[in-house]
Amino acid sequence: MYKRAEYHIIKNRLKEPRKFVQVVMGPRQVGKSTVVKQVLNDLDTPYYFFSADNVPATNGAWISNCWATVRSLKESKKYDDIVLVIDEIQKIANWSEAVKKEWDDDTFHDRNIKVLLLGSSRVLLERGLSESLGGRFEEIRMSHWRYQEMHECFGFSLEQYIFYGSYPGAASLVNDAERYQQYIQSAIVEATINKDILMDTPVGKPALLRQTFELGAAYSGNMLSLSKMLGSLQDAGNTTTLTGYINLLNESGMLTGLQKYSIDVARRKASIPKFQVYNNALKTMLCPYTYEQAILNRKTWGHIFESGIGADIINQAFVHRFEVFYWRERNDEVDYILRKNGSVVAIEIKSNAEKSTTGLETFKKMFNPHIAIIVGDGGISAEEFLTIDLRTLF
Q1: Are 318 and 143 in contact (CB under 8 A)?
Q2: Which of 18, 106, 194, 367 shows the smallest number of beta carbons within 10 Å?
């Protein structure tokens, strides 16, 4: 079975002496549970795996009961150490307080119980970690699969990766368009909205949240003002509501709205967002063209291509913790601006020979970035770019 890079990170951490709670976080259906089970099966250490997926959120004692089971098993079997794994832990109310209590109790009594937590709601996990578990945890961030992984595991070509995205569960369905679209709609979109957002966060207008996602995904790789969005949505409310919904979609690893790059923070926050899906399957799910038709349609493929490259960029940004913006001034534009520790990287996606790159030259003169890259015609190939660890560019 294919093993992602996170397999080795998790395995090495669980082999280390007990020191931190290990927290694996990432969007739905990227293989978090699968990777953890691969690690557990290859470890010599005994383990116990629990899932909070169907546990009532108000059942605060459930976490303590899981811990009691593992402690009892460790004592009765005389294990030197044991691994406790809890999946979808963010679904339990006040989970971080319960984890802190039990972890500290194990520490005080010198119980060698290593703990691994998994979750798909980034905001709820990070909120709990910062509130109660400061100094007691390490994050392991998992993103959507990259091109090289989809190529090695499923034999995807570059064009298939750009069009179909990178959900491993959908890889075997790409030759059946109807089944593929149903999987993305039900297993990804509806499951994320219903289970990861609506169950955990008060949302006044669930139908509007879905419309916001669909419109933002359709415009992935493009700018769209919130005021124009209001005119396209039913019962839209106001821009504050839309901004809140876009933040929820971002925290669930589905869709983000990139801000314009600017030294002035106020101008940045007031900018028109550039929408970007985290997985191109979420954009092409709504595409009126088939895979074959999209490739032949130069304009359509250009939009899909740029969105696919952008998806790889923002996934690496999530894992490696750097910022992503776009830049535009009058007729000059740069597709993606990356920033980390004061170092700036400019990336222009050139999907065809007709697209101008004068914006990149203007940006270089104004901001003097550390490096400027063209991806596509006249620059490095998309295939090569999608194998780059973007941290090496800073």
Answers
A1: yes
A2: 194
What ranges do the domains of the chain cover? 5-141, 147-393
CA dist 87 and 116 (Å) reads 9
* CA proximity to 41, closest of 1, 89, 87, 69: 1
pTM of the predicted structure, to 2 decimals: 0.91
Q: How far from chain centre, in Å, is Cα 92? A: 21
Q: Quick one: CA torsion of 25, 28, 30, 36, rounded to 10 degrees?
A: 50
Task: Give which of 294, 339, 286, 281 is closest to 145, Cα–Cα.
Answer: 281
Taking the C-alpha atoms of residue 64 and residue 98, their distance in angstroms, rounded to an integer, is: 7
Tokens of 330: 């009058």
Specify whether the CB–CB gap between 216 and 249 falls below 8 A: yes
Average pLDDT of the chain is 91
Given strand 323-329, what is the order of strands in its sheet? 323-329, 332-340, 343-350, 371-376
Averaged pLDDT, 353-378: 88
Angle at 213 between CA 211 and CA 216, to 5 degrees: 105
Strand ranges inside 196-295, DSSP E: 255-258, 274-277
Are 281 and 192 in contact, with CB atoms under 8 Å apart? Answer: no
Lowest-confidence region among 44-53, 64-73, 119-128: 119-128
Angle at CA 334, nearest 5°, toward 332 and 337? 140
Q: Is-contact 291 163, C-beta < 8 A?
A: yes
* Residue-wise DSSP of 66-118: HHHHHHHHHHHHT-S-EEEEEESGGGSTTHHHHHHHHHHHHHHTT--EEEEEE
Residue 80's CB: how many other CB atoms inside 10 A? Answer: 8
CATH class of 5-141: alpha beta
- Strand-pair partners of 345: 338, 371
**What burial letters (b/e) apply to 118-128, b meaning 16+ CB within 10 Å?**
bbbbbbbbbeb
pLDDT tens digits, one per residue of 176-230:
999 999 999 999 999 999 887 887 778 888 888 999 999 999 999 999 888 888 8
